[in-house]
Amino acid sequence: MTQPTDILIIRHGQTAWNTQKRLQGHSDIPLNENGRLQAVTLAEILRDEPLDAIFSSDLQRAYQTAYEIAKIHNLPVHQDRSFRERCYGICEGMKDGEIREAYPESYKAWYAADPDHFFPDGERKTESPRQFHHRAVNAIREAATRYPGKKIAIVTHFGVIETAYRTAQNIPLGTHCRMPVLNTSINRFRWTGGTLELLQWGEASHLEEGRKPPVDYYRHY
């Protein structure tokens, strides 16, 4: 029988677009000052966590977060574009109200959770929720099956974490799935024989700690 893989799926630290509530998607936005502090604090919290591998999206906000964890564990970061956020095309960089005004039909479909809706293409080709869901699940599966009986960390984006939650809780596409996914929150899953199980959701006590920089924080930046 295949041994289970324990997976920590972690959202990247805060960015300027997070604070401005702009849709990020594939736009490569770096961590802001608070996000860098969150990443360092997260890494300290995970210092004694036994990790066998660390994966991240190739977008810099995820990689910068994963790098802090990897540095403490003396592990490489395996960057994989399959762990990127969903691509929102021309709507990336826009706020909720701006999307509603400029693309009202897309806005309605978005909030109706239409699984086959595509935003208008922009610099990059968009994905439907269904396409994105399959991409994210396949990425998690591939990472997990490479490390049976081990524990891995995946630093990624809101949408990928929502997909993991939806999969583990058997929430079908086309229905709303609302739960908090804070920046650098830790979500624990287990992959066993093709099934994803949720073990613990939304560990975020370190965000309170993050209000006070670690002693060596300013050595990093």
UniProtKB/TrEMBL annotation:
The keyword Isomerase applies. Keywords: Glycolysis, Isomerase. Pfam families: His_Phos_1. SMART domains: PGAM (SM00855). The keyword Isomerase applies. PANTHER family: BROAD-SPECIFICITY PHOSPHATASE YOR283W-RELATED, HISTIDINE PHOSPHATASE FAMILY PROTEIN-RELATED. This is Histidine phosphatase family protein. It comes from Oxalobacter aliiformigenes.
